[in-house]
Amino acid sequence: MKLSILDQSPISTNQTASDALNESLNLAKACDELGYTRFWMAEHHDLPGLACSAPEVMLGLLGAQTKQIRIGCGAVLLPHYKPFKVAEIYNTLATLFPNRVDLGIGRSPGGSAEATNALSDNFLQQVFKMEHLVEDLLHFLNSDFPDEHQFAKIKASPVPTIPPNPWMLGTSEKSALLAAKYGLSYAFGLFMSDLDAVSIIDKYRKTFNSSVFNHVPEVLLTVPVVCASTTEKAEEIAWSSLIWQIQQNRGEAGSVPSIEEAKNYELTVKEKEELNRLKEKMIIGDPQKVKKAFHQLQSIYDVDEIMILTITHSPTDRIQSYSLIAKEILSNYNHEYR
Which residues are in the Luciferase-like domain (predicted)? Predict the structure, then answer.
């Protein structure tokens, strides 16, 4: 089983945004040593509590201070941008860090309506053109526009020896079918969707034409996880993340609360029900419990890889969670991070 990381650079109540970004770097360096496959930075805009609005900037830093872990964005919110510029950025990263760069593609706005309007014009119209944006991006990455195309004479320089590996991120059948049509690997955000992921992933696999693309379909599943030495300890640590999500739903989005702050937060009856629903979407437990849950997911969804999203108030708890999981599951585990 392959394991990877999705990081959102969460800001805890005792941190600045600078602290959060530096902790993302520390996490990437630790997980590089622990044997994880890839480290993706999420893209969010004007969301209190999250520090990473420009993952492409962070990826240059992460790539320079890690050795083997793949780096990428989960995801570039393509309707905001011109495919040519996205290709230039990720070709540059792939030139600097050969055979280590992923380019995750998404269609969500990544923030409020106001932030969306500040980022780009006609976002919804660009969403409707998503298939054409993806097609142009792939042509720029592969330098293979047809001769008659208006962009046939230009290159997204620098052109790396090994192009970035494109992925489609999504939570719906529409994204799965788009990934299959263009031969892209597919990352399903299980924690963000209430849809039937089994049927969506199955549709992706059945629609994907391996003979055309000369490779088999590749799927990863993204899930929120908190692991600690005991399940009781993991549940205590996870309380910060759970209450933070309730605060966001209240419109009180801010920094990730401490465990003590979370314990003292008063919930309505409806919010207690919502918290239980959120908890059901998470994997919380000791290493053995987490391993069992991962194998169940692998069996149910027939996935090649699990991508882990872990948000805790303490950076030490977060790194320890990934370390315990690596030690329990990864065959290429190198050492316990200290």
Answer: 1-300
Residue 327: strand, helix, or coil: helix
3-state SS of 223-267 is: EEEEECCCHHHHHHHHHHHHHHHHHHHHCCCCCECCHHHHHCCCC
Q: Give 332's pLDDT tier (boundaries 50, 70, 90).
A: confident
Domains and CATH numbers, the chain: 2-226+285-329 (3.20.20.30)
User: Which DSSP string corresponds to 64-114?
Assistant: HT-SS-EEEEEEEEGGGS-HHHHHHHHHHHHHHSTT-EEEEEE-S--B-HH
* 338 pLDDT more than 50: no
d(CA 154, CA 185): 26
Q: What angle do CA 249, 255, 257 make, to 5 degrees?
A: 85
Cα 220 to Cα 236: distance, rounded to the nearest angstrom: 28
Could you give phi then psi for residue 181, rounded to 5 degrees? -60, -40
Give the tens place of pLDDT for each residue, 169-178. 999 999 999 9
Residue 194's pLDDT is: 87
DSSP state of 11: P
For 77-132, the pLDDT digits (tens) are 999 999 999 999 999 999 999 999 999 999 999 999 999 999 999 999 999 999 99
Cα–Cα nearest to 181, from 211, 218, 207, 214: 207
> Which amino acid is it at 60?
G
State whether residue 3 is helix, strand or coil.
Answer: strand
CB half-sphere exposure, 75, CA atoms < 13 A: 24
